[in-house]
Amino acid sequence: MEGKIVTIGEILVEIMATTFGDGFLEPQPLIGPFPSGAPAIFIDQVGKLGAAAAIVSAVGDDDFGTLNLERLKRDGVDVSAVEVLPGAATGSAFVRYRADGSRAFVFNMRDSAAGKIAATLAAESVLGGAAHLHVMGSGLPMPAVHGMVSTAIPALKERGGSVSFDPNIRPEMLRDPAGRAALDRVLAATDLFLPSGEELMMFAGASEETAAIAALLQTGVREIVLKRGKAGASHFDRNGRTDMPGFAVEEVDPTGAGDSFGATFLVCRRFGLGIGESLRYANAAGARTVTIKGPMEGTSTFAELDAFIAGATVRSP
Ligand code: ATP
Ligand code: MG
């Protein structure tokens, strides 16, 4: 594998309630800050696996920013294109789990440094040297992010690079015609598509999995990996499908599983591993993430994944 894997998007801290409940309407104990942000978790996982990695983002000139930068650097990520914005606060997310396992968030994103990501010279330089771009759908509504993605993709493809895409989207974005068009343009250039659950059907405009997969492969997407939570994942390409059951673990904190999973699958494939082995490692990365509190605390090295797999049991389908 040569060349860098690059992503663009938000760096945040996460602060978690330590009790279950509906939200944040009264004082209650919290734990954090933890490094977070879906693109940041993804790229941290790439770095931990020993692949060249960089992120284009922005943080404030504050402790929350420093915490994230130090973590990413420690794990081998190039942060030269993370702008430190004087006077801006690093983005944050407060999260509380409801009794049914769903999450209530208070985000400070749009008005934070994460909402001010810009096409700086450093960003252009990192994107210009990328061999692979990972696009997060959640960041595309930001004009600067969308602009960088649109400019980077044709150049990247021209030099033989590749693109992965995790839709990670809210349904409203698909209902907005401009949002839909932006997502479709990325999809048209996608080599590896990484939807989870409902996202597959929403994107393909199909009501059933097989039809959705066929429609997407028809549009030129080369590989699709459908994330199925505790049930594991399935891989689809023109040659067929490969299903891989998940590992049996106790879920402590689900945040970050999809990002660790996607990064691990991508890196394994780029290191030349087969589809089945790559799915197994990716399932292990996702499963390990959910057993550890904190969105980025559960990213793994290959040694940690090997140790996990050696001691783990696969869920019976
Ligand atoms: P996220 O919540 O980070 O957005 P996602 O919706 O993109 O996640 P999931 O399908 O929830 O993706 O999780 C990604 C992968 O992590 C799964 O395919 C599986 O391999 C692993 N995983 C997630 N939850 C569990 C679990 N409870 N037990 C075992 N493995 C899990
Ligand atoms: Mg997801």
TrEMBL record:
Domain of life: Bacteria
Domain annotation Carbohydrate kinase PfkB: ranges: 35-298
InterPro entries, alphabetized: PfkB_Carbo_kinase, PfkB_dom, Ribokinase-like
Matching Pfam families: PfkB (PF00294)
Keywords: ATP-binding, Kinase, Nucleotide-binding, Transferase
A GO MF label: kinase activity
Family annotation (SUPFAM superfamilies): Ribokinase-like
Keyword Cell membrane attached: no
Keyword Ubl conjugation annotated: no
Protein family according to the UniProt entry: Belongs to the carbohydrate kinase PfkB family.
Protein name (record): Carbohydrate kinase PfkB domain-containing protein
Source species of the chain: Kaistia soli DSM 19436
